[in-house]
Amino acid sequence: MISVRRAVLIVLSAWHGLAAFKNLCDLGATFEIVPAAARWRSHNFAAMEKLLAPLRLPRPLLGTLLAGVVGVEAAAAVAFARNDDELAFALAVGLFGSFALIDEAMADYELDETHREVLVFVLVGYLATRRTERGESD
Predict the structure, then answer these.
(1) Which residue of 33, 58, 93, 105 is most buried, as measured by CB atoms within 10 A?
(2) pTM for the complete prediction?
(3) CA nearest neighbour of 119 among 96, 103, 101, 98
(4) What is the pLDDT of residues 75-118, one digit of tens each?
């Protein structure tokens, strides 16, 4: 029987993997590398453009930033799937904590609300899956 801990890690792995896939599709569609990917896009590139417009960053730099997000999301998904929960949670908290800080710096409180909700979701997952002092495992 699958444990609650393992079920939470599987859900977090799938969620981060799906987010990475949708962001990758967004990049492919935005830069017309894979136009058919538009069906699965996340629309996060457009959100980044809007959020960071005052900084006037070039589109390729924004694409590089989103590609970095894809890399971190994919790494977190793999770490969750491999039961490397400390690394996985560190990556997820670092990513969504960074998003929350950027949202605050750019005064985008609508986007900040979403990122804070995801950050809380990840932290609750961490608390729910913590191993005891005795070193329990699956």
Answers:
(1) 93
(2) 0.90
(3) 96
(4) 999 999 999 999 999 999 999 999 999 999 998 877 778 889 99
- Termini Cα distance of the chain: 10
- The C-alpha atoms of residue 92 and residue 98 are separated, in whole angstroms, by 10
Write the secondary structure of 23-62 as one string of H (helix), E (strand) and C (coil). HHHHHHHHCCCCHHHHHHCCCHHHHHHHHCHHHCCCHHHH
What contacts 138, CB < 8 A, 6 or more positions away? Answer: 3, 5, 6, 83
Contact between 34 and 25 (Cβ < 8 Å): yes
Q: DSSP states of the chain as a string?
A: ---HHHHHHHHHHHHHHHHHHHHHHHHHHHTTSSGGGGGG---HHHHHHHHTGGGT--HHHHHHHHHHHHHHHHHHHHHHHTT-HHHHHHHHHHHHHHHHHHHHHTT-HHHHHHHHHHHHHHHHHHHHHPPPTT----
CB-based contact 68:44 (threshold 8 Å): no
**CA 12: distance to chain centroid?**
10
